[in-house]
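Quick one, probably user error.
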């Protein structure tokens, strides 16, 4: 009898060890089918405490990070509930032997703590140019630029610059501190910090000339139907001209540049191209005639037809459709952790995840107001006709 118990104990130990080993490598024993099946894992990497994690309506954990193991392939639902916050839910298709990562969990509080600092403008302006550092109000009436430099604490450094402008001027940023403006077919780069100015002499044969900063000052232009790039030195002179493409699409009128980091997006003939490593490459993505592009380092958001939102990853060379809103979208911007977006419609300002599964309105604003992301992840700015408001928000733990 003692020997029988010993044999039974050894067999039980082997069985438990085998089951544990199989489970550790993602295998599961199917008793009904009497075979071993390969499973998958769902990895929740965000750090959250005092939260109930549900997998297909079953409570599996009370905090994250957490791995849901032995997941069979197919459609599943992960839901998170926390007191004082709106429910978070995500449906996904789990593939065999694949770890499905979830790293975009942002629990939105039932009550948003938003604090605004109001600054009355006290002047009239005709147009606004901005990046995440400067907000410039251009006044044609008195040929003046009112420059507001955004600080991390939500305040502004305010300055004014007198510049004589023609009626057909055009402003755009070359980088954080350098503003380039085109006036009477002449280009001038103004450093907003030290107020130094540099004239850029563009040869007459350079058609549709555009400037970008990537990271040194660079010009893009068409000459004889061929697309070129040229480095520009500190004196505004052209250096090292490079042929980029003889594609006829660049001969069209609709030629523009969107610049960010060390790369540039080139919009021409209804198609989108990426300038990188001294070469132009087409981006495999359908766009509208006049898309709005919002960049964030290696990714950008694209708003088509004021209804459709697409996210594109430059390193992965892959874009995917986020969703289509029935309501007209005036503007989109990156939000907080750069894994959610601010969406401005005619009814207010909303924050959504990239699946549109979790959205909520955080602010009532008018249709004419402009949304500008701030310097840090808990900041954004609303510009109206008479005032500018710097908002900071706090998401409770």
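Nope, works fine. Designed sequence:
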């Amino acid at each position: 009898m003692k020997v029988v118990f010993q044999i039974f104990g050894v067999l039980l130990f082997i069985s438990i060890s085998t089951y544990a080993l199989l489970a550790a490598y993602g295998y599961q024993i199917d008793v009904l089918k009497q075979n071993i099946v390969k499973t998958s894992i769902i990895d929740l990497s965000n750090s959250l405490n005092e939260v109930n994690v549900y997998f297909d309506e079953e409570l599996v954990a009370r905090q994250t990070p957490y791995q849901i193991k032995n997941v069979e392939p197919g459609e599943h639902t992960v839901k998170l509930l926390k007191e004082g916050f709106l429910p978070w839910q995500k449906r996904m298709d789990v593939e065999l032997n694949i770890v499905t990562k979830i790293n975009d969990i942002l629990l939105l509080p039932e009550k948003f703590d938003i604090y605004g600092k109001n600054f009355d403008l006290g002047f009239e302006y005709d147009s606004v140019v901005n990046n995440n550092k400067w907000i410039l109000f251009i006044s044609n009436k008195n040929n003046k630029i009112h420059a507001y430099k955004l600080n991390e604490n939500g305040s502004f450094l305010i300055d004014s610059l007198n510049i004589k402008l023609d009626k057909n001027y055009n402003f755009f940023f070359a980088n954080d501190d350098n503003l380039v403006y085109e006036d009477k077919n002449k280009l001038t780069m103004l450093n907003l910090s030290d107020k130094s100015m540099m004239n850029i002499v563009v040869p007459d044969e350079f058609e549709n000339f555009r400037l970008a900063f990537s990271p040194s000052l660079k010009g893009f232009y068409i000459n004889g139907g061929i697309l070129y790039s040229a480095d520009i030195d500190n004196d505004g002179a052209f250096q090292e001209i490079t042929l980029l493409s003889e594609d006829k699409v660049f001969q069209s009128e609709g030629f523009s540049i969107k610049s960010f980091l060390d790369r540039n997006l080139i919009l021409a003939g209804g198609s989108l191209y990426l300038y990188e490593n001294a070469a132009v490459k087409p981006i495999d993505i359908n766009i509208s005639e006049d898309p709005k592009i919002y960049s964030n380092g290696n990714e950008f958001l694209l708003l088509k037809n004021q209804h459709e939102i697409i996210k594109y990853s430059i390193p992965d060379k892959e874009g995917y459709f986020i969703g289509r809103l029935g309501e007209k979208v005036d503007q989109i911007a990156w939000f907080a952790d750069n894994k959610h977006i601010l969406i401005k419609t005619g009814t207010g300002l909303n924050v959504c995840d990239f699946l549109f599964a979790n959205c909520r309105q955080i602010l009532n604003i008018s249709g004419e107001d402009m949304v500008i992301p701030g310097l840090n992840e808990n900041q954004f700015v609303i510009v109206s006709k008479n005032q500018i408001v710097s908002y900071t928000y706090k998401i409770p733990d």
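The two ends are 59 Å apart (CA to CA).
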